[in-house]
Design a protein that fits this description.
Elements: H1 3-22, H2 28-39, H3 41-62, H4 66-87, H5 89-92, H6 96-101, H7 108-113, H8 117-127, H9 137-154, H10 160-172, H11 174-187, H12 191-197, H13 203-237, H14 247-263
Helix pairs in contact: 1-13, 3-4, 4-8, 4-11, 4-13, 8-11, 9-10, 9-13, 10-11, 11-13
Length: 269
């Protein structure tokens, strides 16, 4: 599955469909204000953060700052997890993690804002947000081959049986396990974490581990991007019903939407 090609195609189709409904130019610049209005500030902020962190991660990787790239890739994943929580509010509210944290005095947004990366990953796992069939099988095999070497320095206290169990876990549920490895590598930004886990700082091996973590993290980002794209595509299908409305009603809806878009002058940051 070429996830990047699917995302590009869906993006083009979305621009064309929204432009057709609103009768505006089918360009990214003309459609973006409509998307901002439709997505809302929280969703748009999470989306922009995911892109920003991802681009910064690529810049660091190109400059051979591999640990910095690893940290930013983890940040991009955290942003995508948050974005997906906002997109799939009803499903998230059914999870054991959310039910355990929700308080009567807190809104959904406030509860999500308090979630750690660890809890976001657990919600993702509980809801199966990264199905096995969307993970690149060739990349998965490469990760499985390289993981024992990574474990020597990142998890030096593990025995052979524990490493084998982790490899098997990758085969059963690659998405969740990739997220966990990404999280463990991200946590090495804390010096105390090195003491707790006994991780070994070998410059050459650590650099290789960071490269692997970035590759894993990029695959997770693509998986979440594809999921968000499919969610958006499903929402776009509802626009088909718009054409069934009387022309006078459609004209009035367009007028109201375009008025709202033109009135939105503040950048969402």
């Amino acid at each position: 599955m070429d996830k990047e090609a699917l995302i590009r195609t869906a993006s083009t189709q979305a621009i064309d469909e929204i432009a057709r409904v609103l009768r505006i130019e089918p360009t990214q610049n003309s459609v973006t204000p409509a998307l901002k209005l439709a997505m809302g500030s929280d969703l748009m902020k999470a989306y922009k953060l995911s892109l920003y962190f991802g681009l910064e991660a690529d810049r660091c990787f190109d400059q051979k700052a591999f640990f910095a790239s690893c940290l930013l890739t983890a940040a991009a994943n955290e942003a995508f997890l948050t974005l997906t929580c906002i997109q799939e509010e009803q499903a998230v509210m059914t999870t054991s993690i959310y039910r355990g944290l929700k308080k009567p005095s807190k809104t959904f947004r406030e509860t999500i804002a308090d979630l750690s990366l660890d809890k976001l990953i657990k919600i993702s796992n509980e809801l199966g947000w990264i199905p096995n069939d969307v993970v690149n099988p060739e990349l998965l095999e490469a990760v499985i081959q390289d993981f024992p070497k990574l474990a020597e320095t990142v998890y030096p206290n593990w025995n052979a049986a524990q490493v084998a169990q982790k490899v098997e876990a990758f085969r059963r549920a690659p998405g969740p396990e990739m997220l966990k490895v990404m999280q463990d590598m991200r946590n090495l930004v804390h010096a105390t974490r090195w003491l707790k886990t006994g991780s070994l700082l070998d410059d050459t091996e650590f650099e290789s581990n960071c490269k692997l973590a970035v590759i894993v993290g990029r695959e997770v980002v693509l998986c979440f991007s594809l999921r968000s794209t499919r969610t958006f595509e499903a929402n776009l299908q509802k626009l088909g019903k718009f054409e069934e409305l009387p022309e006078s009603v459609k004209a009035r809806v367009r007028e109201l939407l375009l008025s709202d878009i033109q009135g939105t002058t503040e950048e969402i940051v």
